[in-house]
Write a structure and sequence with these properties.
The protein is of the alpha+beta class. The chain folds into two domains: 116 residues, no CATH class; 147 residues, GAF domain (Beta-Lactamase). It has ten helices and five strands; from the N terminus they run αααααααββαβαββα. Strands 2-1-5-4-3 form a five-stranded antiparallel β-sheet, with helices on both faces. Strand 4 and strand 5 form a beta hairpin.
Length: 346
């Protein structure tokens, strides 16, 4: 094949190139058309297709003698699918198709009357169906918006329920924590009342000191409690009735006790060897934890109260504070008792 035949627009290659060019042009044009324009274009194409189908059915069924039969349906369907203007296009296309295939002589009065009546009826159908379709579309849009709003409200409701559940859980936890704190505060108050009970004042000095040491041992769940009053020339030791008792009374001399760190509470946790080194008393084996509270007067240690435990654990601030309260009170009682004994001797 020569070069001139290959370049001819009527050759096979030319036709293929032309088809490709047309497809490319149409594709670019369709890409430039917006979604709304494409929807309208589809509506008009649908209207023409509906009229063509109606005309084909009339032709196949031999209904040329019945004017516009099936065309009303095509107009109604076109108006429902695309609105008023596609319905108008369908009516005009149906009128043209009927004029082409009609057995009524063109230009006759019957021809004009039939055509005008069809156009009028088609316009009425188009308006009614178009408005109905628009109303249905608006209703569907509203329903869709309502469904979306309902979904948002349901989601919001779920979020609120989740937040409420979280809030309820946090409030329950906070209430539990407050109840626990209230129970602890109540227990601490009862404990403090037990060692500051005014009814104990009816007891004599020595009996009162022992009662305080007994109560301190019980409220602290201690194994042993003892207090030593440091006098000018001798010391005095008193212990709780129950629990561990020092084996030989005081382990340290008066001078060593007076050198006890001024105003400093000593704490030992789970260390029996260290307890033996620093304790004023000779406690039996098994004691591993210690609270040693000094009572200071005029810059010197005048008394030392010790609380010992055998079970592992750590002393709380409340236990230390309670031991300090009892130490102050017992030291004062023992001093008053000494003064009373000295006065009796005199």
């Amino acid at each position: 094949m020569s070069d001139s035949s290959r370049r001819s627009p009527f050759s096979l290659q030319g036709i293929v190139d032309l088809g490709s060019s047309v497809r490319s042009t149409v594709g670019r044009r369709l890409a430039e058309i917006s979604a709304e324009e494409r929807r309208r274009l589809r509506a008009f194409v649908f209207a023409l297709a509906a009229v063509a189908v109606a005309a084909l059915m009339r032709l196949l069924l031999g209904l040329e003698a019945t004017p516009f039969l099936f065309f009303y349906v095509a107009v109604a369907v076109s108006a429902w699918n695309g609105g008023i203007w596609p319905g108008v296009v369908a009516a005009l296309a149906a009128l043209l198709a009927e004029r082409v295939n009609s057995n009524i002589p063109a230009g006759s009065s019957n021809d004009w009357v039939t055509g005008i009546a069809f156009v009028a009826e088609s316009l009425a159908i188009t308006l009614v169906v178009g408005r109905l379709a628009a109303s249905v579309e608006q209703t569907e849009d509203r329903l869709w918006a309502a469904d979306s709003r309902i979904s948002e409200l349901e989601s919001h409701d779920r979020d609120l329920r989740r937040e409420l559940a979280d809030f309820t859980t946090s409030m329950a936890k906070a209430e539990t924590a407050l109840r626990q704190e209230a129970d602890i505060a109540r227990e601490q108050l009862e404990t403090l009342q037990s060692v500051t009970d005014p009814s104990l004042n009816a007891l004599a000095g020595t009996e009162l000191v022992v009662a305080l040491l007994d109560r301190l041992r019980l409220v602290l769940d201690a194994d042993g409690v003892a207090v030593m009053r440091v006098g000018a020339f001798r010391s005095r030791v008193m212990t709780a009735r129950a629990g561990l008792q020092p084996t030989t009374g005081a382990r340290k001399t008066l001078a060593e006790v007076r050198q006890h760190p001024t105003g400093r509470t000593l704490l030992i946790h789970n260390d029996a060897d260290q307890l033996e080194q620093v304790s004023v008393f000779a406690w039996p084996e098994g004691a591993t934890s210690l609270i040693a509270v000094p009572v200071v007067r005029s810059g010197q240690t005048r008394a030392v109260l010790e609380v010992v435990k055998c079970q592992p654990g750590r002393s709380t601030e409340w236990e230390i504070a309670l031991a300090q309260v009892v130490a102050e009170r017992t030291a004062g009682l023992m001093r008053d008792d000494e003064y009373a004994d000295a006065g009796a001797v005199a």
